[in-house]
Amino acid sequence: MSVFVDLFAYLCLLRIVSSSSLTAPPQSAVVVAFEDVYDLSLLANTLSDQLIDATLIIPASKKEDLYETLIDVEVLTVDVQIEESAYPETKAVQACEALLKDGQIAKKIQEIRPTFVIFPALRHDGCLIPWTKSIESIPVIWTRNRDEEVYVFEYTGAALPVQNAGFWSRLRTIFTRRSIFSAGRDDYATYALRIVGKYLPDTDVNLDNLYGDVRLILWGADTVLRSDFAPLTQLIVEVGCHHCRGAQPLEGSVHELLLEFRQGTIVVLLDDNYEPLIRELVQKLPQNREGQAIIWKNAKFQSTDRVLQNYFVRTAIDRQDLIGYSRTRVVLSHCGDTELLEAGFHGRPVLCFPRNTHESKNSARATQLGFARSTEDLRAISGEEISNTVNQLHEMPEYRENARRVSLAIRDRINPAVDRLIYWLGYMAKTKDGNMELFSPMNPVRTPSEDLQFFLGLFVGGILGIFATVGCMVARYIFISRRTQRSKGRYTR
pTM value? Predict the structure, then answer.
């Protein structure tokens, strides 16, 4: 009798749970990466680690850029014929069309029926937001850098820009942000929507309502790096260090090689065109077991030089395992968001080699925090100068102490980035058809500062108008009086 009672109670409980609006359904995610394949494959791997079925879509030519240790992530490739010299917008438009007309991917997506489609904003949104709507998934935007933050927050009104510089600097920043938004929309989204109209004519998406279905924005940075916006909704989720974790032991042979060098290891994460500079740096360091080992994680070339005893190139090692290796002393990096956050998480001093404005601002911020130096501050980029800077980062304890403080600031938080990521994805899945109005920002938003600036501008404009009017009246009076005097012949001889 008790068995039937237990069975009846179990069935009642199952019915209650299945009828609850807060029950999380099975989740799956498709991550689309026309570019920045490594960083987005890290995201796909994080989702897989958290028991979300993850599928990654990339161009076939970018397979070598994947994260080395993807686990349980299905990778789908799009065959895109793109010239390397083409503009990024052109490459993205071609990738968009290749994705939309790929029958195999369309069939696979129908089988998966993903809960989410996650993708960056710039050079992705005009194609993938309508595509996501056509497969009835939830679009999730990922911001990779400052330009994408400007673009997304301008389009959605989900955050206000924070400016603390002088008046003219703020004015210049406003015009810069408007140009970033206009360029991103006009140079890509307009053309992408035309292609979408060709393959998905029933989506009814245009430039005005493009972000109408977007509710969740994943901010791929961290407040340690920057905080240029004030969020107006909880659905802007900071997930910059979602993949940060403790370092795993290095492969036995690599560990044995590095262990023999008494002064530790220098990790190089630069592009392969920096090889001549790094070889010059290696030659400036002691060429024996009393010095430092230099290990370069690079997928484009292999070192065949047997003369340099402390120089190693390895391609298949996880980047975080190298950065977090107990004997790593200094990291040489371009200081993009992901690499810099990893170095900060593991508490490693960094020498930055910025390639663009975003990385220059990151290196300036890391220098301000006291755990990095930048090649922009050096007198010359040479092996001698780099060697001196590396020795300073290695030998001066304040750099290690500041790096440790940054590590604690990232690690010691109530809710880590990965927990925020998984929670809000789950919340979106549970409340897909409702409750979003409780989190949507008040749009458009106006601040007291803007009202003050309006009235101040009105007052100043009125004063200038009065002065201009009085000046015109005086000038007119003088002109008429002189003409009258001439007509009476007063100035004739």
Answer: 0.82
